[in-house]
Amino acid sequence: QVDLAESGGGLAQAGDSLRLACILSRRRFTNYAMGWWRQTPDKEREFVAGISWSGGSTYYADSVKGRFTISRDNAQSTVYLQMNSLKPDDTAVYYCAAGRNHGSFHYMARAEYDYWGQGTQVSVSP
What whole-number distance in Å separates Cα of residue 5 and Cα of residue 104? Predict the structure, then answer.
């Protein structure tokens, strides 16, 4: 069993910043590409950002590009999502996900990810 534990969600005002963190346990962190996804009650879960096992490649949804930054600390088995210039539309439950590395990993494909965290709520007021 793989454990993914998110932290860092909460309440923010438009324009504020928040940083999410996710720790993976019970597995070798560098075996996994990592991603952040989010979901609201009225929408499908959507891709937010992804990062390769080395941290050398990152990918973003157009809606967050330039505002959010994904990073990872392989020594601490932790992936981060720095969220700046938050908007009310960023309100969602944010999920951390891990997918085993392979040569043609599709970061924006939900089916690529094998393990998911429980989610952390981010709420942004106008």
Answer: 26
What does the alpha-carbon distance between residue 14 and residue 51 come to, in Å, rounded to a whole number? 26
CB neighbours of residue 31 within 10 Å: 12
Residues 12-53: tens digit of each pLDDT:
999 999 999 999 999 899 999 999 999 999 999 999 999 999
The burial of 13, by beta-carbon neighbours within 10 Å (0-12 exposed, 13-18 middle, 19 or more buried), is given as: exposed
Name the region of 111 (left: φ>0; alpha: ψ -120 to 50; beta: rest): alpha
- Ramachandran region, residue 54 (left: φ > 0; alpha: ψ -120 to 50; beta: rest): alpha
